[in-house]
Amino acid sequence: MEAGARTDISVVAPSPMLTVTVEPDGDIHLHAGGQGFWIARQAARLGASVTLCAAFGGETGTVLKSLISAEAIPIWEIAADGRNGAYIHDRRSGARQVVAQTRGSNLSRHAVDDLYGAAFATGMRAAVTVVAGTDPAGLVPPGFYGRIARDLAANGRTVIGDLTGAELDAGVSGGLTLLKVSAETLAAEGRAALDDDGIIGWMRTASGQGARHVIVTRGAAPAVALLDGSLMTAAPPQATPNDARGAGDSMMAAIGAALAAGGSLIDAFRHGVAAGAMNVTRSGLGTGRREAIDALAEHVRVTAVAPDPSGAGTTSTPA
Fold this sequence. Notes:
By secondary structure, the chain is an alpha/beta fold. It has one domain (about 5-319): 3-Layer(aba) Sandwich (UDP-N-acetylmuramoyl-L-alanine:D-glutamate ligase). The protein has 10 helices and 15 strands. An 11-stranded mixed beta sheet has the order 5-4-1-8-9-10-11-12-13-14-15, with helices on both faces. The protein has a 4-stranded mixed beta sheet with strand order 3-2-6-7.
């Protein structure tokens, strides 16, 4: 990576994964994967200049670096003592079957220090920093997310994150500019019930605890956002899904790209929903084309949500 180079988006991905997929025609595909990489790739395809801060180790790390370099995404590499995770999926039956999967190694104290240094340095010269969680959780201490969010925010930088578990809690307390989480995650972690009152109540709580803006995705239902204290939903045009994985990562990439380009929060929300919807129509994660996502964003319906004066719930009006 060129020293001193400015960037639109810094993506902090502690441990990318190597993915191996056997396709229905028998072809075997090797790709870089993991939440952070998929965000970085989609953001780059949306025209943003991207730097990926990530740790690499072992044979899987060596292969990953080569695959990411082929995508022309600049890397700030952190040397890890262990290995990156990997999985092998078989799709010859038409359904995705897990053949084997191995977790990445926990990053050592020194590697975590190096990752923080890379994230802080790139974040200071980036318009937006996106922090991605680890899979499985715990490859870095959760406090890492709170520290990087807090320190970049203290210097007037925009930090957005898609996190779960203790990593989510740390990011919120650190003062993330924007947090994205799925309703399924909230329910699975016992944070909120899968109804409007439960989700909206949790969003207001998270905002009060430090996350300035909050977005919750709800699968095929419209996403809901709390932006500058105002509630709204966003619904894309209906489309037949091809692969439901990775919609949230594409959403984060588009939100980051829109904010880095100077777009409003509502514009970023609209483009994020469009990118997530486009992702599920494709086979590759984080591969949506910019012109298609921009065109689809024009048809995303954003609706303001306000308390019902009768006390019976909420009412909606076009935003």
